[in-house]
Automatic annotation (TrEMBL):
Coiled coil: none annotated. One of its GO terms (molecular function) is monooxygenase activity. It comes from the Bacteria. This is FAD-binding domain-containing protein.
Amino acid sequence: MTVLIAGAGIGGLTAALSLHAAGVDATVVESAREIRPLGVGINLLPHAVRELTELGLGPALATTGVATTEIVYADHHGTVAFREPRGVARGYRWPQYSIHRGELQLLLLAAVRDRLGPHAVRTGTRLTGFTPAGDTVRVQLQDRATGTVTPTDATALIGADGIHSAVRARLHPDDGPLLWSGVRMWRGTTRAAPFLTGRSMAIVRDGTAELVAYPIGRDRINWVCQVRVADPGPVDGAAAWNRAGDLADVLPYYAHWSLDWLDVPTMLAGATEILEYPMVDRDPLPSWGEGRVTLLGDAAHPMYPVGANGGSQAIVDARVLAFELAAADDIPAGLARYEEARRAATADVVHANRTMQRSHGWGPRELARITDAYRSATGSDVERLNNRPSYTR
């Protein structure tokens, strides 16, 4: 069988590697003409690091990312309210890595081209439609350079094409708009000296604004500023997504902050590029796909980034997808089992992220309760992950 994956992001590339490892042919199509190391930082939680390690990428991750050892909650004066160990320091068998998203994508891309062949990822190719065709899916692919549309048959189609997924839009035309939390986010990276242990993630609040900061290697600090500017509601994601941010819009919320271990205003001002977008998600779907077509990653379950779990869940999706397809007697049955395994689990993460985003407790006991409840709700506690069977066949 040959599986066509729409989208060469973290989830799509991991799916290609996982399918190949399970003995299933895969091809990835990507709308962008060139895959470049764009974006900012991302956290890979231990359940995702486990999957990439089992794909043989552990050494590359260790070289590229920073193994996070703790998360620190503090106020805008730098007073620490709560510390919690992370990754191996917490007892997981696998680390937690903070890594540049674009560098992770290129790491995965290099592995796909090395293992599946140089033409396994077709860039500059846009999916414009698909229809069932007996034992295959007839997919319409457009060459962005020439505009030529070519029909291609695949035994399955996986929509891993992100939060504005074309595959999802065709499967669920009445899905509705993205749902905005009312929080505006600004993100950037700055070359700066490490803070605290040098492997610490910090979450800092002053009651109005919140900052998340962590190192991602090569003397870079990734930072995320979150400010509530409106009531929750629907948003036109195409108009408000991933646009260039302005320091003058975000700095006033943080200009008065004074941490003796991190100069926040200087860090924000030192970013070479600032991105601005709304914190959004969608309500979980009652089903992802049908027949030989399904969804993966943000296309299936866009979620708030407050749990540092979006990319990690896409990686687990990819591994379960390959695991179920390799064992299935037929493609639709394998995709149905994949969906059964992942749809409810990822819905739990969507709801857990919403709960965490709305939480206001800031005392040590409350923070400990919130983080423990999050791990329990998302199935990412130490004992369950360390003892779960592998998805490798």
